[in-house]
Amino acid sequence: MNRPQHLAPFIPAVNADEISAHFNLLPDRYFAQTGETDVALHLTMVNQLLRNISGVDSLGSLRPVIEWRDEPERGCHSVHIVTWDRGGLFYKLAGALSVAGFNILTARITTRTDHIAIDSFEVAAPEQNTESSRTVFARAVESALVANQDLGAAITAQAGHFSVGDSGRAPSVEAYLEISHPRVIIEVHAPDRFGLLYRVGRVMAENGFSLTAARVHTERGLAYDQFDLDPSDDRPVDVPRLTLLRDELLRAIAAAS
Fold first, then answer.
1. Quick one: which of 15, 39, 121, 207 has the fewest CB in 10 Å?
2. How confident is the model at residue 10 (pLDDT cuts 50, 70, 90)?
3. Which of these, 241, 155, 166, 248, lies nearest to 196 by C-alpha position?
């Protein structure tokens, strides 16, 4: 896989050693899925995170770096978040977007081998003022990641303001162990519902799994999501554990309907 080291001269604020380390700490799939503009953006965001950490106390180091970009030709917005990886990070970020009224269209997550997470979402704007919603998102992220507050009640309160259609399709969840890596793969096909990613991500974390990659896509009211998981505890990943995870995911999806 060719990694875009040729971008280095266009990022003068970041030294060559840090750029080289950044490329070497990322998996090949990141470069296959990420355009050069976003690669450069993420690199500068990681640099900002590291500089923030060096200049603040331990609490401040938990705050992510957030960048928004408008995508008018695609009718959506993208938000990029760089922060230290931690338990439940993905579902907390997804929950913060829901609290702010954004509907998640796509999501990609990548974690460097030094545990810096790079998460990107494409979202549909809420009906209310977008700038105000971005402020709400930033505050919700602060609450979830720094103050470790549960966003569940706020998401439930927001859900009543959003209507969802009926696709007529019953949800399905597949959970299996891919031996060649090894890793756990979760495939979710379900009607899109407000807060869906928050709910399924939380179930994964509560069942002792950490999310290493996600490919999330929503089209015509249907969510097509795949999640790569690693166990975050020492329990064996056997058929009963995967069956329990699948069943709890199905219950969480049903609760979101």
1. 15
2. low
3. 155
Q: Are 80 and 118 in contact (CB under 8 A)?
A: yes
CA dihedral 173, 210, 154, 69 (to 10 degrees): -100
CB 94 within 8 A of CB 108: no
Q: What percent of the chain is predicted at pLDDT more than 70?
A: 88
Question: What's the token pair of residue 166?
Answer: 């009926």
Whether residue 182 has a cis bond before it, omega within 30° of 0? yes
Q: Which two tokens stand for residue 210?
A: 């950490």
**CA within 13 Å, CB half, 179:** 1
Q: Distance (Å, rounded) from C-alpha 111 to C-alpha 114?
A: 8
Q: What phi and psi, each to the nearest 5 degrees, are found at residue 80? A: -115, 135
pLDDT for 153 beyond 80: yes
Residue in 182, 171, 174, 164 with CA at minimum distance from that of residue 229: 182
Helices (DSSP H) in 61-206: which residue ranges? 89-99, 130-141, 152-159, 196-206
Name residue, tokens 């799939």: 29
Ramachandran angles phi, psi of 66, nearest 5°: -125, 135
Q: Which has the closest alpha carbon to 218: 83, 97, 88, 110?
A: 97
The confidence score (pLDDT) of residue 43 equals 94
pTM: 0.87
pLDDT (mean) for 15-30: 90
CA dist., res. 153 & res. 128, Å (int)? 20
Q: Is 84 in contact with 61 (CB distance < 8 Å)?
A: yes
More confident residue, 157 or 151: 151
CA gap 148, 33 in Å, rounded: 31
